[in-house]
Write a structure and sequence with these properties.
Strand order of the largest sheet: 9-8-7-10-11-13-12
Bound molecules: S-adenosylmethionine
CATH topology of the largest domain: Rossmann fold
Radius of gyration: 18 Å
Largest sheet: 7 strands, mixed
Helix content: 25-40%
CATH class of the largest domain: Alpha Beta
Shape: globular
Number of helices: 10
CATH architecture of the largest domain: 3-Layer(aba) Sandwich
Number of strands: 13
CATH superfamily of the largest domain: Vaccinia Virus protein VP39
């Protein structure tokens, strides 16, 4: 039982964030990582993997809406979607709000993350794991991708950082395997860290993706508990026209989708492609 003590996340050598916790709800060393779930007065429930904040009840909507709806409203008609990671269920929830989606495959390495997030963060998946359109595969995303013969319109890699089990999901081999499984006109997006703190992730990802795709770039949004300013999501496609679509074109799809969002809207969607110079310069290193 924690009596209003602080938990400190020290993802970086010389910088940490901390927050008050009121209770440790669950903790386990799984086969892959250290999983902790806290109750907190300010952020609601918070999950850490290997001591790194993965998701909070308070700000998960920002990350999950932007990671999903930017590619899903950019693609003219996404039917088949692949999610790598995403064990808390937020990405799956948002993907399944798109009525046109016929099938979603989610490949998560750690069953415990799914099980514990279903129990402690029920609103994250909000029943998505029981949706007949969803197939959940418990495997290392790298192994799945290497042997995958299926094809997808959108691939979303919602992994941990490139330390621990997530590291293999940031390699050229993985990106090449992913590309083999994208349909023509397909889009790949991936969690790519906070460039103010993890600039090398932008540099490395850009170098690797730009060798494989006609268009490799990033888009951004601020996620308060991913400390350090804008979070980058990697973007890759062979159809450079996709990101040229107007706000009006995106708006038409958003309006016909008919669901409400708390962060995402078509203006924010298109604006998220605009990268500040300190991020752009990381792509040219
Ligand atoms: N939104 C978070 C972020 O930006 O850091 C990520 C959240 S989600 C909980 C990350 C998921 O990636 C976890 O469930 C973890 O188990 C999963 N994961 C890590 N490495 C993986 C791998 N190699 N294959 C499949 N899933 C993996």
């Amino acid at each position: 039982m924690c009596d209003n003590k602080f938990v400190r996340e020290r993802l970086y050598e010389d910088y940490a964030q901390s927050f008050t916790v009121s209770d440790l709800l669950f903790e386990v060393k799984t086969e892959h990582q250290h999983l902790e779930i806290f109750e907190t007065p300010f952020l609601g429930r918070v999950m850490l993997l290997d001591g790194v904040v993965q998701t909070t009840e308070k700000d998960e909507f920002i990350y999950h809406e932007m990671m999903v709806h930017v590619p899903m409203f950019t693609h003219p008609n996404p039917k088949r979607v692949l999610i790598i990671g995403g064990g808390d269920g937020g990405i799956l929830r948002e993907v399944l709000r798109h009525e046109g989606v016929e099938h979603v495959t989610q490949v998560e390495i750690d069953q415990s993350v799914i099980d514990m997030c279903k129990e402690y963060f029920p609103k994250h998946s909000d029943g998505a794991y029981d949706n007949p359109k969803a197939t959940i595969v418990i495997a290392d995303g790298k192994d799945f991708m290497a042997s995958c013969t299926d094809k997808f319109d959108v691939i979303i890699s919602d992994s941990t950082d490139p330390i621990g089990p997530g590291e293999v999901l940031f390699t050229s081999d993985f990106y090449a395997d992913e590309k083999k499984c994208l349909n023509e006109g397909g889009i790949m997006v991936a969690q790519n860290g906070v460039p103010f703190m993890q600039g090398d992730e932008v540099t490395n990802t850009y170098q690797r993706l730009s060798k494989l795709y006609n268009e490799a770039s990033f888009y951004i949004m601020p996620v308060p508990t991913y400390a350090g300013g804008f979070m980058t999501l990697a973007w890759a496609t062979d159809d450079e026209s996709l990101r040229q679509q107007s706000v009006e074109q995106i708006q038409a799809r958003y309006d016909s989708a008919g669901f409400a969002t708390r962060y995402y809207n078509p203006e924010v969607h298109v604006a998220s492609y605009a990268l500040p110079n300190y991020i752009r310069v990381l792509m040219t290193k």
